[in-house]
Design brief:
By secondary structure, the protein is an alpha/beta fold. The chain has 20 helices and 12 strands.
């Protein structure tokens, strides 16, 4: 009965994954087609490139996606049916085998009772337990070595590794494998990653795209945050003062959470989605911004006039992104932020403000003028543990309908289904997610990046193979000149800077600023947003994939707090 329940649950889960895949992929196909024929009317519109070739490409993408989807869905449903049929055909053999295993286990227990083997095994088990405690102590030595300097840290780490390997062999444990180190500068750029994904199935590319979610279907590990947003909305509906700061680093899922919040509660309130698109430099910029957003009869002449107008318009949920653009670390650079937030605090009984901030700019504003006092609630968007990261990734993997196998270092997978082979596979999977969480620090965009650069697609057997994820080697960051390290810190603490803003902060010449920023861009530590070749337009942000190691090194060097 237990095995039948497991087989039925597995079939039900597979059908759910297939149906979720169909809904997701059909929505993407609609998005492709809507570029050519909008859903709101019969008129055709040009896409951003504006050419007929782009329209043809959009239709071709949609056709390829739908054909891929239906073929794979048919195969998935057939495999579900075959699995249930095979189980039911062999149910008698399963029952007989289970009885045999139980009988043998009982006899084996009786034979081992009081045997010499048990008594001889105790010292080795005790030694293995001591070894685990010793490993924790050695990690403390390594941490101490880091404080003494890079060279001593390397020496202590090398001695500790050799000592632990010798102890593992004496304790009867397998020797520790040499781990592959991922060199940050050698990892693929976003453009190179897109090229690598071309060989993956259409459905898979869509499920693991580096973009925000539009609905709650794939929102995993955010139940507490969504529940909290629902409670805040209920308080606001009772005309209680409410304002929310949503805080998290680049790529941590702030926009996805905001999208799901609107999708979930749009039947209960009117939402306005806004963005602070560029840095606010003075109070006049704040007034101009509110005038564009709310279109008063006359442009706002003062903060008081802005507050008076917002207190009169219908109640609405105001969602604002890019809160990091409120501040610049120059003389008087915090005044626009204080003016903006005074409007938020003065009107939060009328409107529910939800403002998204990148993590380090929020910390700086908290230090400068206690930004949290302008908000009644704060919500963090990083994943709290590796279990949440794992569930979010596996939901997308299962939805694709393709199986995944965690392989060894050599890329080979076990074909045997023995207890030892299954245990080894579970160990490899557990270690992979532990490394992934360590590399991403709960940043979901970073987790998807490392997932995609590691996974391999076996098109012959239609299975994804996942080899071990090496540890990130970010030791070279410590050797960077201090000017580069301080540049990294300022980009982090502003959520992004343009060339002109960077010059204002550091008071360097234009060529030196370009050299520093371009060098960090070549190291993959930065992303350029809206930058044209050879111009100073746009701005630089820290690459979300490398947010964790960059932050860790800057904090360790007391440059970032």
């Amino acid at each position: 009965m237990k095995e039948y329940g497991a087989a039925y649950a597995k079939a039900l889960s597979a059908e759910g994954d297939t149906w979720r895949n169909i809904r997701f992929s059909m929505q993407r196909a609609v998005d492709y087609v809507s570029v050519v024929v909008p859903l709101t009317g019969p008129e055709s519109v040009k896409d951003e490139a504006g050419g007929p070739g782009d329209s043809a490409a959009a239709l071709e993408k949609a056709e390829g996606l739908v054909v891929d989807l239906m073929t794979h869905a048919q195969e998935s449903l057939r495999s579900v049916e075959d699995g249930l049929t095979e189980f039911l055909d062999g149910i008698e053999g399963v029952v007989a085998a289970d009885h045999g295993k139980i009988r043998e286990a009982i006899l084996a227990d009786l034979r081992r009772s009081g045997s010499l083997a048990v008594r001889l095994n105790r010292p080795r088990k005790a030694l293995q337990h001591s070894l685990r405690r010793l490993s924790a102590q050695v990690r403390g030595w390594v941490a101490l070595g880091r404080k003494e300097g890079v060279r001593s840290a390397g020496t202590i780490r090398g001695l500790a590794a050799g000592y632990l390997d010798w102890m593992r062999q004496f304790a009867g444990l397998p020797a520790r494998r040499q781990e592959a180190l991922l060199q940050l500068a050698d990892l693929p750029s976003d453009r190179e990653l897109e090229g690598m994904m071309e060989d993956l199935p259409h459905v898979y590319r869509g499920l693991f795209s580096l973009g925000p979610l539009k609905s709650r279907e794939f929102l995993v590990g955010r139940e507490e945050e969504m529940e909290k947003l629902g409670e805040i909305l209920a308080r606001w509906e009772q005309e209680l003062a409410c304002s929310v700061a949503m805080v998290g680093p680049e790529g941590s899922g702030k926009t996805s959470l905001l999208n799901c919040f609107e999708d979930e509660f749009r039947s209960r309130a009117t939402f306005r989605r806004l963005e602070i698109e560029s840095r606010l430099r003075a109070e006049k910029d704040v007034l101009d911004l509110f005038s564009r957003w709310f279109e008063p009869p006359e442009p706002f002449a003062s903060i008081e006039a802005t507050i008076a107008h917002l207190r009169q318009i219908p109640r609405v949920v105001i969602v604002v992104e890019a809160g990091h653009n409120l501040i610049l670390r120059t003389m008087g650079g915090a005044r626009p932020a204080e003016a903006f937030l005074r409007v938020v605090m003065a009107t939060r009984e009328r409107h529910l403000w939800v403002v998204a901030f990148r993590e380090n700019p929020w910390k700086r504003m908290e230090y400068l003028f206690q930004v949290s006092r302008f908000f009644t609630h704060t919500i963090q968007t990083l994943f709290h543990n590796e279990k949440e990261i794992r569930e979010a990734l596996l939901l997308r993997q299962h939805t694709s309908g393709y199986p995944i196998v965690f392989t060894g270092e050599d890329g080979q997978r076990d074909t045997a289904e023995t207890a030892e082979a299954l245990k080894a596979a579970r160990t490899r999977e557990t270690r992979f997610y532990s490394r992934l969480f360590e590399a991403s620090r709960g940043n979901f965009e970073a987790a998807i990046y490392y997932w995609l650069i590691t996974i391999n697609w076996d098109s012959g057997e239609e299975v994804f193979l996942m080899p071990p994820l090496g540890r990130l080697d970010h030791s070279y960051l410590r050797d960077l000149d201090r000017s580069y390290l301080f540049a990294l810190a300022e980009i982090l603490c502003h959520g992004g800077l343009s060339l002109r803003e960077f010059q204002e902060i550091f008071h360097w010449g234009e060529e030196r600023c370009k050299m520093v920023l371009d060098y960090l861009l070549q190291l993959r530590l930065f992303r350029s947003v809206g930058l044209e070749a050879g111009s100073g337009d746009g701005h630089y942000i820290v690459n979300p994939a490398f947010y964790a190691p960059v932050t860790a090194v800057l904090q360790d060097l007391n440059i970032l707090y």
